[in-house]
Design goal:
418 residues, transferase activity, 11 helices, 17 strands, alpha+beta, five-stranded antiparallel sheet, Acyl_CoA_acyltransferase, 26% strand, BioF2-like_GNAT_dom, GNAT family N-acetyltransferase, Aminopeptidase, transferase
Amino acid sequence: MIDNPFNSEIFKNIWLKHFNEGNEPFTIKSIIGADFYKSRFPGLWVNVGRTHTKGVYYEFEEKNKRLSGKSCLIFDVPTYFDCPSTKGGGRAVKRVRQYPGFLIELEKFADLAGFMKEQFGKSSRYKLKKYRKKLEQSFDINVKMYTGNMDKSEYDHIFDCFRELLEKRFSDKEEYNNNLDAQEWGFFKEVVYPMLLNQQAGLFVIFDDKKPIAVTLNYFSKDIIFDAITVFDIDYFKFHLGSVNIMYLIDWGITNRFSILDFSKGYFDYKTRWCTKKYDFEYHLVYDKTSIKSTTIAILLQKYFRLKQYLREKDINKLKNRIHFLFSKKEPQTKNLSPNYNTKFEEFDNKELELEHIPEYGPKINKIVFEFLYLFGERSKEVKLFRVLEDDNLLVLKGKNNTKIIALNEKVENILKP
Protein backbone atom coordinates (compact mmCIF):
# COMPACT_ATOMS: atom_id res chain seq x y z
CA MET A 1 0.00 0.00 0.00
CA ILE A 2 1.45 3.39 -1.02
CA ASP A 3 1.29 6.13 1.61
CA ASN A 4 -0.84 8.55 -0.42
CA PRO A 5 -1.34 12.18 0.71
CA PHE A 6 -4.46 12.47 -1.46
CA ASN A 7 -6.19 9.84 0.64
CA SER A 8 -5.57 11.78 3.86
CA GLU A 9 -8.54 12.99 5.87
CA ILE A 10 -7.35 16.59 5.50
CA PHE A 11 -7.28 16.42 1.71
CA LYS A 12 -10.57 14.53 1.36
CA ASN A 13 -12.57 16.67 3.81
CA ILE A 14 -11.42 20.01 2.38
CA TRP A 15 -11.96 18.78 -1.18
CA LEU A 16 -15.53 17.72 -0.33
CA LYS A 17 -16.12 21.11 1.28
CA HIS A 18 -15.11 22.96 -1.89
CA PHE A 19 -16.40 20.63 -4.59
CA ASN A 20 -19.20 18.53 -3.10
CA GLU A 21 -20.93 20.90 -0.68
CA GLY A 22 -19.28 19.24 2.30
CA ASN A 23 -21.16 15.96 1.89
CA GLU A 24 -19.72 12.88 3.57
CA PRO A 25 -17.66 10.52 1.39
CA PHE A 26 -19.00 7.08 0.56
CA THR A 27 -16.86 4.02 1.27
CA ILE A 28 -17.10 1.05 -1.06
CA LYS A 29 -15.98 -1.94 0.97
CA SER A 30 -14.64 -3.75 -2.07
CA ILE A 31 -12.11 -0.94 -2.80
CA ILE A 32 -9.38 0.11 -0.34
CA GLY A 33 -7.52 3.43 -0.62
CA ALA A 34 -10.18 5.56 -2.30
CA ASP A 35 -13.41 7.09 -1.07
CA PHE A 36 -16.22 8.11 -3.39
CA TYR A 37 -19.11 10.47 -3.90
CA LYS A 38 -22.24 10.04 -6.00
CA SER A 39 -21.89 11.56 -9.44
CA ARG A 40 -24.63 13.36 -11.35
CA PHE A 41 -24.22 10.61 -13.92
CA PRO A 42 -26.81 8.01 -12.86
CA GLY A 43 -25.31 4.95 -11.26
CA LEU A 44 -21.74 6.27 -11.16
CA TRP A 45 -19.51 6.78 -8.12
CA VAL A 46 -16.39 8.98 -8.50
CA ASN A 47 -13.29 9.08 -6.31
CA VAL A 48 -12.98 12.00 -3.90
CA GLY A 49 -10.39 14.42 -5.28
CA ARG A 50 -11.17 13.74 -8.95
CA THR A 51 -8.42 15.37 -11.03
CA HIS A 52 -7.06 17.47 -8.15
CA THR A 53 -4.92 14.60 -6.93
CA LYS A 54 -1.53 13.88 -8.48
CA GLY A 55 -1.93 10.15 -8.31
CA VAL A 56 -4.34 7.72 -6.66
CA TYR A 57 -3.40 4.31 -5.33
CA TYR A 58 -6.05 1.74 -4.45
CA GLU A 59 -6.38 -1.98 -3.78
CA PHE A 60 -9.21 -4.50 -3.80
CA GLU A 61 -10.59 -6.11 -0.68
CA GLU A 62 -10.44 -9.86 -1.14
CA LYS A 63 -12.89 -10.76 1.63
CA ASN A 64 -15.63 -8.55 0.20
CA LYS A 65 -15.42 -8.79 -3.58
CA ARG A 66 -18.91 -7.75 -4.66
CA LEU A 67 -19.65 -4.30 -6.07
CA SER A 68 -23.41 -4.93 -5.94
CA GLY A 69 -24.05 -3.33 -9.33
CA LYS A 70 -21.98 -0.19 -8.68
CA SER A 71 -19.84 1.56 -11.30
CA CYS A 72 -16.80 3.46 -10.01
CA LEU A 73 -14.57 5.98 -11.77
CA ILE A 74 -11.09 6.55 -10.35
CA PHE A 75 -9.19 9.44 -11.91
CA ASP A 76 -5.41 9.72 -12.38
CA VAL A 77 -3.95 6.36 -11.49
CA PRO A 78 -0.21 6.33 -12.38
CA THR A 79 0.88 3.10 -14.05
CA TYR A 80 4.03 2.97 -11.90
CA PHE A 81 1.84 2.62 -8.79
CA ASP A 82 1.10 -0.93 -10.00
CA CYS A 83 -2.40 -1.07 -8.57
CA PRO A 84 -3.31 -4.77 -8.25
CA SER A 85 -5.66 -6.46 -10.68
CA THR A 86 -9.10 -7.77 -9.76
CA LYS A 87 -9.56 -11.34 -8.67
CA GLY A 88 -13.06 -12.74 -9.01
CA GLY A 89 -16.26 -11.58 -7.35
CA GLY A 90 -17.66 -10.16 -10.56
CA ARG A 91 -15.34 -7.14 -10.44
CA ALA A 92 -13.67 -5.87 -13.58
CA VAL A 93 -11.56 -2.85 -14.53
CA LYS A 94 -11.33 -0.94 -17.79
CA ARG A 95 -8.17 1.20 -17.95
CA VAL A 96 -8.08 4.24 -20.22
CA ARG A 97 -4.80 6.04 -20.88
CA GLN A 98 -5.20 9.81 -20.57
CA TYR A 99 -2.05 11.82 -19.83
CA PRO A 100 1.69 11.15 -19.98
CA GLY A 101 3.58 11.32 -16.71
CA PHE A 102 7.26 11.98 -15.96
CA LEU A 103 9.44 11.35 -12.93
CA ILE A 104 13.03 11.32 -11.69
CA GLU A 105 14.24 8.21 -9.87
CA LEU A 106 16.13 10.04 -7.14
CA GLU A 107 17.07 6.82 -5.35
CA LYS A 108 19.52 6.01 -8.15
CA PHE A 109 21.74 8.98 -7.34
CA ALA A 110 23.95 9.88 -4.39
CA ASP A 111 23.81 13.60 -5.10
CA LEU A 112 22.88 16.24 -7.66
CA ALA A 113 26.27 15.97 -9.39
CA GLY A 114 25.72 12.25 -9.96
CA PHE A 115 22.29 12.91 -11.48
CA MET A 116 23.62 15.66 -13.75
CA LYS A 117 26.46 13.45 -15.00
CA GLU A 118 24.08 10.62 -15.81
CA GLN A 119 21.32 12.75 -17.35
CA PHE A 120 23.17 15.39 -19.37
CA GLY A 121 26.16 15.64 -21.66
CA LYS A 122 29.22 17.68 -20.80
CA SER A 123 28.07 20.74 -22.76
CA SER A 124 24.60 20.79 -21.17
CA ARG A 125 26.05 20.33 -17.67
CA TYR A 126 28.37 23.27 -18.27
CA LYS A 127 25.48 25.50 -19.35
CA LEU A 128 23.24 24.51 -16.43
CA LYS A 129 26.03 25.12 -13.92
CA LYS A 130 26.65 28.49 -15.56
CA TYR A 131 23.00 29.50 -15.23
CA ARG A 132 22.99 28.64 -11.53
CA LYS A 133 26.30 30.43 -10.93
CA LYS A 134 25.15 33.57 -12.74
CA LEU A 135 21.85 33.64 -10.84
CA GLU A 136 23.61 33.32 -7.49
CA GLN A 137 26.26 35.81 -8.58
CA SER A 138 23.77 38.49 -9.61
CA PHE A 139 21.16 38.18 -6.84
CA ASP A 140 20.93 37.38 -3.13
CA ILE A 141 19.51 33.91 -3.71
CA ASN A 142 18.28 31.71 -0.89
CA VAL A 143 16.13 28.59 -1.08
CA LYS A 144 13.71 27.13 1.45
CA MET A 145 11.29 24.22 1.64
CA TYR A 146 8.43 25.12 3.97
CA THR A 147 7.06 21.93 5.51
CA GLY A 148 6.24 20.86 9.07
CA ASN A 149 6.18 24.37 10.48
CA MET A 150 5.24 27.74 9.02
CA ASP A 151 3.63 30.87 10.42
CA LYS A 152 0.17 31.40 8.91
CA SER A 153 0.84 35.04 8.00
CA GLU A 154 4.00 34.02 6.16
CA TYR A 155 2.09 31.25 4.44
CA ASP A 156 -0.57 33.70 3.26
CA HIS A 157 2.10 36.05 1.93
CA ILE A 158 3.91 33.30 0.02
CA PHE A 159 0.66 31.98 -1.41
CA ASP A 160 -0.38 35.45 -2.57
CA CYS A 161 3.01 35.83 -4.29
CA PHE A 162 2.50 32.36 -5.77
CA ARG A 163 -0.74 33.48 -7.38
CA GLU A 164 0.77 36.72 -8.68
CA LEU A 165 3.59 34.79 -10.36
CA LEU A 166 1.10 32.38 -11.97
CA GLU A 167 -1.06 35.24 -13.24
CA LYS A 168 1.99 36.98 -14.65
CA ARG A 169 3.30 33.81 -16.29
CA PHE A 170 0.07 32.74 -17.98
CA SER A 171 -0.85 36.28 -18.98
CA ASP A 172 2.48 36.44 -20.78
CA LYS A 173 1.79 33.07 -22.46
CA GLU A 174 -1.79 34.16 -23.21
CA GLU A 175 -3.08 30.86 -21.89
CA TYR A 176 -5.84 29.94 -19.48
CA ASN A 177 -4.86 28.22 -16.22
CA ASN A 178 -7.69 26.51 -14.37
CA ASN A 179 -5.72 26.58 -11.10
CA LEU A 180 -6.38 30.33 -10.94
CA ASP A 181 -10.16 29.91 -10.92
CA ALA A 182 -11.54 31.21 -7.63
CA GLN A 183 -12.93 27.84 -6.51
CA GLU A 184 -9.79 25.87 -7.32
CA TRP A 185 -7.39 28.44 -5.88
CA GLY A 186 -9.49 28.67 -2.73
CA PHE A 187 -9.23 24.91 -2.35
CA PHE A 188 -5.46 24.85 -2.79
CA LYS A 189 -4.89 27.69 -0.37
CA GLU A 190 -7.04 26.06 2.32
CA VAL A 191 -5.82 22.48 1.91
CA VAL A 192 -2.07 23.06 1.63
CA TYR A 193 -1.52 24.76 4.99
CA PRO A 194 -2.78 21.96 7.29
CA MET A 195 -1.11 19.36 5.05
CA LEU A 196 2.12 21.39 5.24
CA LEU A 197 1.97 21.41 9.03
CA ASN A 198 1.42 17.64 8.85
CA GLN A 199 4.41 17.23 6.49
CA GLN A 200 2.16 15.99 3.70
CA ALA A 201 2.76 19.11 1.60
CA GLY A 202 5.39 21.77 1.17
CA LEU A 203 6.13 25.07 -0.55
CA PHE A 204 9.56 25.14 -2.17
CA VAL A 205 10.52 28.79 -2.60
CA ILE A 206 13.46 30.57 -4.21
CA PHE A 207 13.98 34.09 -2.89
CA ASP A 208 15.81 37.03 -4.36
CA ASP A 209 16.65 38.61 -1.01
CA LYS A 210 13.15 38.56 0.53
CA LYS A 211 11.15 38.43 -2.72
CA PRO A 212 9.79 35.03 -3.87
CA ILE A 213 10.82 34.52 -7.50
CA ALA A 214 9.92 30.82 -7.85
CA VAL A 215 7.37 28.70 -5.98
CA THR A 216 6.63 24.99 -6.26
CA LEU A 217 3.70 23.36 -4.48
CA ASN A 218 4.63 19.81 -3.50
CA TYR A 219 2.77 16.96 -1.86
CA PHE A 220 4.65 14.19 -0.05
CA SER A 221 4.23 10.52 0.56
CA LYS A 222 6.90 8.69 2.53
CA ASP A 223 9.12 8.23 -0.55
CA ILE A 224 7.64 10.48 -3.27
CA ILE A 225 7.67 14.22 -3.95
CA PHE A 226 4.68 15.16 -6.10
CA ASP A 227 5.40 18.39 -7.99
CA ALA A 228 1.85 19.79 -8.21
CA ILE A 229 2.18 23.40 -9.42
CA THR A 230 5.38 25.27 -10.19
CA VAL A 231 6.06 28.77 -11.46
CA PHE A 232 8.92 31.23 -11.70
CA ASP A 233 9.15 34.97 -12.27
CA ILE A 234 9.48 35.47 -16.03
CA ASP A 235 11.68 38.54 -15.42
CA TYR A 236 14.43 36.04 -14.51
CA PHE A 237 14.02 34.02 -17.69
CA LYS A 238 17.50 35.04 -18.94
CA PHE A 239 18.97 33.12 -15.98
CA HIS A 240 17.00 29.95 -16.84
CA LEU A 241 15.36 30.10 -13.44
CA GLY A 242 13.06 27.18 -14.26
CA SER A 243 16.01 24.83 -14.76
CA VAL A 244 17.84 26.16 -11.71
CA ASN A 245 14.70 25.59 -9.64
CA ILE A 246 14.62 21.93 -10.71
CA MET A 247 18.27 21.51 -9.73
CA TYR A 248 17.59 22.95 -6.28
CA LEU A 249 14.56 20.66 -5.84
CA ILE A 250 16.46 17.54 -6.97
CA ASP A 251 19.25 18.41 -4.53
CA TRP A 252 16.74 18.81 -1.70
CA GLY A 253 14.96 15.56 -2.58
CA ILE A 254 18.15 13.47 -2.66
CA THR A 255 19.44 15.05 0.56
CA ASN A 256 16.15 14.22 2.30
CA ARG A 257 16.20 10.63 0.98
CA PHE A 258 13.15 10.67 -1.27
CA SER A 259 13.02 7.93 -3.89
CA ILE A 260 11.04 9.77 -6.58
CA LEU A 261 10.44 13.31 -7.78
CA ASP A 262 7.22 13.07 -9.78
CA PHE A 263 6.57 15.90 -12.27
CA SER A 264 3.00 14.60 -12.56
CA LYS A 265 0.74 14.63 -15.59
CA GLY A 266 0.95 16.68 -18.73
CA TYR A 267 3.57 17.06 -21.43
CA PHE A 268 6.15 19.83 -21.24
CA ASP A 269 9.56 19.86 -22.91
CA TYR A 270 11.37 20.37 -19.62
CA LYS A 271 9.84 17.19 -18.20
CA THR A 272 11.15 15.02 -21.02
CA ARG A 273 14.58 16.60 -20.62
CA TRP A 274 14.87 16.05 -16.86
CA CYS A 275 12.94 12.81 -16.27
CA THR A 276 14.53 9.39 -15.97
CA LYS A 277 11.25 7.53 -16.44
CA LYS A 278 8.02 8.06 -18.37
CA TYR A 279 4.69 6.55 -17.44
CA ASP A 280 0.98 7.04 -18.08
CA PHE A 281 -1.92 8.35 -16.05
CA GLU A 282 -4.99 6.19 -16.46
CA TYR A 283 -8.65 6.53 -15.58
CA HIS A 284 -9.89 3.27 -14.06
CA LEU A 285 -13.49 2.20 -14.52
CA VAL A 286 -14.25 -0.40 -11.87
CA TYR A 287 -17.55 -2.13 -12.54
CA ASP A 288 -19.70 -5.14 -11.74
CA LYS A 289 -19.55 -7.32 -14.84
CA THR A 290 -22.53 -9.33 -13.57
CA SER A 291 -24.66 -6.18 -13.91
CA ILE A 292 -25.82 -5.04 -17.36
CA LYS A 293 -26.24 -1.45 -16.14
CA SER A 294 -22.81 -1.29 -14.53
CA THR A 295 -21.12 -2.84 -17.58
CA THR A 296 -22.91 -0.44 -19.95
CA ILE A 297 -21.80 2.59 -17.92
CA ALA A 298 -18.20 1.39 -18.01
CA ILE A 299 -18.27 0.83 -21.78
CA LEU A 300 -19.81 4.26 -22.48
CA LEU A 301 -17.33 6.08 -20.26
CA GLN A 302 -14.43 4.17 -21.79
CA LYS A 303 -15.46 5.37 -25.27
CA TYR A 304 -15.94 8.92 -23.98
CA PHE A 305 -12.48 9.13 -22.38
CA ARG A 306 -10.85 7.55 -25.43
CA LEU A 307 -12.41 10.29 -27.56
CA LYS A 308 -11.13 12.96 -25.16
CA GLN A 309 -7.64 11.48 -25.38
CA TYR A 310 -7.79 11.44 -29.17
CA LEU A 311 -8.79 15.12 -29.26
CA ARG A 312 -6.08 15.95 -26.72
CA GLU A 313 -3.47 14.29 -28.93
CA LYS A 314 -4.70 16.49 -31.79
CA ASP A 315 -4.04 19.56 -29.59
CA ILE A 316 -7.72 20.52 -29.43
CA ASN A 317 -7.23 21.26 -25.72
CA LYS A 318 -4.68 23.98 -26.58
CA LEU A 319 -7.22 25.71 -28.81
CA LYS A 320 -9.81 25.39 -26.04
CA ASN A 321 -7.45 26.96 -23.48
CA ARG A 322 -6.62 29.79 -25.88
CA ILE A 323 -10.32 30.58 -26.44
CA HIS A 324 -11.00 30.35 -22.70
CA PHE A 325 -8.16 32.79 -22.03
CA LEU A 326 -9.46 35.32 -24.56
CA PHE A 327 -12.96 35.25 -23.10
CA SER A 328 -11.78 35.30 -19.48
CA LYS A 329 -9.62 38.42 -19.80
CA LYS A 330 -10.93 41.11 -17.49
CA GLU A 331 -8.23 43.73 -17.84
CA PRO A 332 -5.35 44.62 -20.13
CA GLN A 333 -2.61 42.00 -20.05
CA THR A 334 1.05 42.49 -19.17
CA LYS A 335 2.47 40.88 -22.31
CA ASN A 336 5.13 42.82 -24.20
CA LEU A 337 5.69 45.35 -21.44
CA SER A 338 9.44 45.33 -22.03
CA PRO A 339 10.71 48.11 -24.26
CA ASN A 340 12.41 47.62 -27.60
CA TYR A 341 16.08 48.41 -27.44
CA ASN A 342 19.42 47.91 -29.11
CA THR A 343 20.61 44.73 -27.39
CA LYS A 344 24.27 45.67 -27.80
CA PHE A 345 25.57 47.45 -24.72
CA GLU A 346 28.30 49.97 -25.50
CA GLU A 347 31.14 51.13 -23.28
CA PHE A 348 30.34 54.44 -21.61
CA ASP A 349 33.26 56.80 -21.13
CA ASN A 350 31.80 60.13 -22.26
CA LYS A 351 32.23 62.29 -19.17
CA GLU A 352 30.81 65.31 -20.99
CA LEU A 353 27.28 63.90 -21.04
CA GLU A 354 25.13 65.10 -18.18
CA LEU A 355 23.48 62.22 -16.28
CA GLU A 356 20.55 62.07 -13.88
CA HIS A 357 20.30 59.22 -11.40
CA ILE A 358 17.13 57.10 -11.57
CA PRO A 359 16.43 56.01 -7.97
CA GLU A 360 13.35 53.92 -8.75
CA TYR A 361 11.92 52.29 -11.83
CA GLY A 362 9.04 50.05 -12.81
CA PRO A 363 9.00 46.44 -14.05
CA LYS A 364 9.24 47.45 -17.70
CA ILE A 365 12.96 48.10 -17.34
CA ASN A 366 13.81 44.79 -15.65
CA LYS A 367 14.61 43.06 -18.92
CA ILE A 368 17.39 45.55 -19.64
CA VAL A 369 18.78 45.45 -16.11
CA PHE A 370 18.77 41.65 -15.99
CA GLU A 371 20.45 41.47 -19.39
CA PHE A 372 23.19 43.73 -18.02
CA LEU A 373 23.59 41.57 -14.91
CA TYR A 374 23.77 38.36 -16.92
CA LEU A 375 26.28 39.59 -19.50
CA PHE A 376 28.67 41.36 -17.16
CA GLY A 377 28.41 39.43 -13.90
CA GLU A 378 27.33 42.42 -11.83
CA ARG A 379 25.23 42.24 -8.68
CA SER A 380 21.70 43.58 -8.69
CA LYS A 381 22.15 45.64 -5.52
CA GLU A 382 25.23 47.39 -6.91
CA VAL A 383 23.73 48.52 -10.22
CA LYS A 384 22.65 52.12 -10.66
CA LEU A 385 20.68 53.58 -13.56
CA PHE A 386 21.03 57.01 -15.16
CA ARG A 387 19.27 58.87 -17.90
CA VAL A 388 21.17 61.04 -20.37
CA LEU A 389 19.68 64.52 -20.22
CA GLU A 390 20.81 65.37 -23.74
CA ASP A 391 19.07 62.33 -25.24
CA ASP A 392 16.12 60.73 -23.47
CA ASN A 393 16.49 57.55 -25.51
CA LEU A 394 19.79 56.66 -23.87
CA LEU A 395 20.15 54.72 -20.64
CA VAL A 396 23.35 54.26 -18.63
CA LEU A 397 23.85 51.28 -16.32
CA LYS A 398 26.70 51.35 -13.83
CA GLY A 399 27.84 48.35 -11.81
CA LYS A 400 30.86 47.75 -9.64
CA ASN A 401 33.13 46.88 -12.58
CA ASN A 402 31.24 47.93 -15.70
CA THR A 403 29.50 51.04 -17.00
CA LYS A 404 27.48 50.62 -20.19
CA ILE A 405 25.13 52.70 -22.31
CA ILE A 406 22.24 51.38 -24.35
CA ALA A 407 19.92 53.00 -26.91
CA LEU A 408 16.18 52.50 -26.47
CA ASN A 409 13.52 52.79 -29.14
CA GLU A 410 11.36 54.88 -26.83
CA LYS A 411 11.91 57.57 -24.27
CA VAL A 412 13.37 56.51 -20.94
CA GLU A 413 10.62 58.34 -19.05
CA ASN A 414 8.03 56.05 -20.64
CA ILE A 415 9.55 52.92 -19.13
CA LEU A 416 10.18 54.25 -15.66
CA LYS A 417 6.51 54.20 -14.73
CA PRO A 418 5.21 51.19 -12.77
